[in-house]
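Postdoc handover notes: sequence design on the structure in folder B. Input tokens:
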């Protein structure tokens, strides 16, 4: 396989692949490829057309069976905008997720297309900041951000809104000739409704953004207390590998870390301290998305009320 631009591919178990988004690419979130034997499933379709195209090419190279089902774990754009590359397949989401996609994305996509000049200005500012920066790690981070924004901008005018074609309520099972895929709604957490995909024969769980690794989770569209309940649900699955929505392939310890993070966040939110003055606890100080930590404090304070 040629060098991939948007993903790092890892076969976590026979026939089950994690497509881990590169920081400099246009994927912006992780995806999955599952070869059931007589058919192939894609889990989440990334943020850009070119990343979704690469995902499809990967799937066609590493599996010998046609792509039949494509799953949207939740409604956020970095997990569903690649749907247009798979519009000849059956795109599946929970009923609540499809309703949210249909409610938000036509206008949101239109707004983003009309704001493309602002994204270009942002790239210009990132380049200026990189020229002034002396720290090597920060220069690398700014370079990744520039490359990622350029990927998003390059095909944004061409993105089509493609809604899921099939829905389910609590769950559904897809049986292949070799493997089984169990699609389950875990309810509210990261968003109003989040879905996971479990491959029981391989002990692999694709979690979407219910689980993220070494990344501050985005809480604005969810509920931290319901999210903790969702994490409790998925901890009961007998898994050897967990594929998070963001970050590298994880294990049960990463779920425990996220539970600890949210528990500490709730306690910090109860303190009578101005948000900018709250220190990020040491275990999480190096996580990606530092600013998200502070917005999460604000979200939890609102939910506590």
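Designed sequence:
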């Amino acid at each position: 396989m040629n060098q991939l631009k948007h993903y790092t591919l890892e076969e976590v178990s026979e026939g089950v692949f994690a497509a881990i988004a590169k920081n400099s690419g246009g994927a912006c979130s992780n995806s999955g490829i599952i070869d059931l034997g007589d058919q192939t499933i894609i889990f989440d379709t990334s943020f850009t057309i070119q990343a979704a195209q690469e995902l499809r090419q990967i799937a066609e190279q590493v599996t010998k069976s046609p792509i039949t089902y494509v799953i949207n774990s939740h409604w956020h754009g970095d997990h569903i905008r690649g749907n247009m590359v798979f519009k000849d397949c059956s795109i599946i989401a929970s009923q609540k997720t499809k309703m949210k996609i249909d409610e938000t994305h036509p206008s949101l996509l239109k707004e983003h297309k009309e704001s493309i000049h602002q994204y270009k200005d942002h790239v210009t500012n990132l380049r200026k900041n990189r020229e002034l920066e002396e720290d090597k790690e920060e220069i690398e981070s700014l370079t990744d951000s520039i490359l990622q924004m350029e990927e998003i901008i390059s095909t944004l005018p061409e993105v089509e809104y493609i809604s899921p074609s099939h829905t389910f309520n609590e769950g559904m099972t897809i049986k292949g000739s070799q493997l089984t895929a169990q699609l389950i709604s875990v309810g509210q957490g990261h968003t109003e409704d989040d879905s996971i995909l479990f491959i029981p024969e391989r002990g692999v769980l694709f979690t979407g953004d219910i689980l993220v690794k070494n990344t501050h989770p985005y809480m604005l569209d969810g509920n931290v207390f319901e999210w903790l309940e969702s994490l409790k649900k998925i901890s009961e699955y007998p898994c050897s590998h967990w594929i998070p929505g963001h970050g590298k392939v994880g294990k049960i310890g990463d779920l425990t870390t996220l539970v600890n993070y949210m528990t500490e966040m709730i306690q910090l939110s109860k303190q009578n301290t101005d948000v900018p003055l709250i220190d990020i606890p040491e275990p999480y100080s190096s996580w990606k998305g530092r600013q998200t930590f502070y917005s999460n404090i604000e979200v939890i304070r609102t939910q506590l009320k």
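Context for whoever picks this up: The radius of gyration is 19 Å. Don't rerun without checking with the PI first.
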